[in-house]
Amino acid sequence: MLTLTGVTKTFGDRTLFADAQLQVNRGDRIGLVGPNGAGKSTLFSLILGHAKPDDGRVSIERDSKIGFLPQESAPVGDETAVEIACSITPDFIKLLRIIKAWDQDHPVEASHPEELHDDVHERFNEVNGYYVEAKAKQILAGLGFRESDLDRPARELSGGWVMRAHLARLLTQEPDLLMLDEPTNHLDLESLLWFQEYLQSYPGAILVISHDREFLNELVSGIVEIRHQKLIRYTGNYDGYLELRAANEAQHLSAYKNQQKEIAHLQAFADRFKAKASKATQAQSKLKAIERMEKIEAPTGDDKKVGFRFPQPIRSGQRVVWLDNVHFAYGDKPVYRGLGIEVERGERIVLVGPNGAGKSTLLKLLADKLTPQQGTRNLGHNVSAGYYSQYRVEMLKPERTVLAEAMDTPAKVTEQFVRTLLGSFLFSGDSAFKKVAVLSGGEKSRLALVKLLLDPPNLLLMDEPTTHLDMSSIDALVDALKQYEGTVVFISHDVHFIKAIAGKVIHVAAGHLTHYQGDYEFYLHKTKSLSARAALTSASTGRPHLGQQAESKPAKPEPKSAAKSEKGPATERDQQRNRAAQHKQQQQVVQKLEKQVEQLEARQTAMATELENPAVWGDGQKAATLRREFEKNATQLLELTAKWEREASALEGLAATLR
Fold this sequence. Notes:
Distance between the termini: 36 Å
Shape: globular
Number of helices: 20
Low-confidence stretches: 108-117, 539-570
Strand content: 15-25%
């Protein structure tokens, strides 16, 4: 579907690509990776035709549609969220507005006479308009939109929500090649999980740039790395790519060393005997052998990490911060009643749990950014607390340059180190001299992290610190926090970051806290979670009461079952019989869903035929009722089809156990 052949692209004296090759086929799921500035965005521009290669060719299969989601969205006007999501053709929204006006018995001020012509319905039906609207609404709901927000003007929404609407537009359009640039930046955890699952069954090819390792691990089946001006393709997900690349590098290094040894041996012989007449011919042959060799290039490792001992905070007392019998509510909506929690020196705690459970509220209570209606928040001896969000709005001076702002720290650091650290957080070269006032939200977040690392308090309270960071910046933050000698409580949906930092997990749900005295792997084991990402929201089984240690509760002995023999576990025959019974039961579930899908499809076809009849639109009330029924049926069909796909997949898994 997409082929790059011998592509070369330079900017000034810098070559991004030299004779680069790439093939993307239908159904491919490819993650595009490489350090900042390697050329990921430039490659997207070449594919989209926004830039031209200096040499080589970018070929796209005829009639293939490409959809692209940039990191930042274009300005919006009067269109609503659902209208953005429905924008599959330039005139679709105009048709939709006319038909909705007719449905509501409102006059349509037509700038063109043909807008009131009978062919409006025909044109709308040609693009399957009713199904498109229902599909767009379902996708918007999956991305976190409430029903009440669908018809709000987009200009009233934040930039993140506008980006979600544009993401819904692409998913509604279903282009043959979906190109996504950091699509998870503006998604909360539950929307991200929905989006990830949706993409797993997406019918087209996907090419995605993402800093989210877990997202890439769950979605892609191949990685393309931009390295040494080439596009190097690896099979597997992101973790598989890291293993393959490490193996390739080790093999390359070994081959290089062996060749260098051989060259040194041949050169030594030539140097020793070139002046000796009887050996001169042999010496010359050794030199020619060196010349004929196809030289293996010396391995070049990744950019060096910041090799510096970060400034450390003063030592606090053992008890760092605690909440005692705290009640907190937003208006008449209670979040916590009788909350108690204590954080000790050196702990690295991650807060997990579903959206709206109270994680951010708990973090703000610990940071003294919210005042409880009852109970107390207490700080221990010598504790200085830093809440990450406050740095963005309260501590950055807009008139300063990035470098000047970073240098404004009590820590004794050199300008060279600060420049190096800024480079790790994507402020390299001239960008270090940009004014803070012109920085984007993501850039301000990164600068705030730099300031935090240069002069950290001994209690760090951080809410989603990896948002807007690329992989190398996340690694730089991980390295800094591993050196950090203070206490950390944080919220994140970056599984890699959590696994690297957290030493304790607290699950927050419905005002209750469940403590797990171990790292994230321990939490996954205790909760028997199958997905590291989904476990960030799911509640533990048999949640203990407030403050109880989940793992300290002694397990009750299993009661003896009449179905089990005391002689030992069930036989293989019994297990096979159970699997067969489960398979049969799952078959019935799938068959029932298939019939329901067929019924909805038949109903959909019948209503579509009826809506195409011009006579129906003579009765405005009947037409509006039929359109609403069509939308409702279309939504049910989408939901039921997705459920059938999940159950059919489960059936295949059970069938595999019977083979």
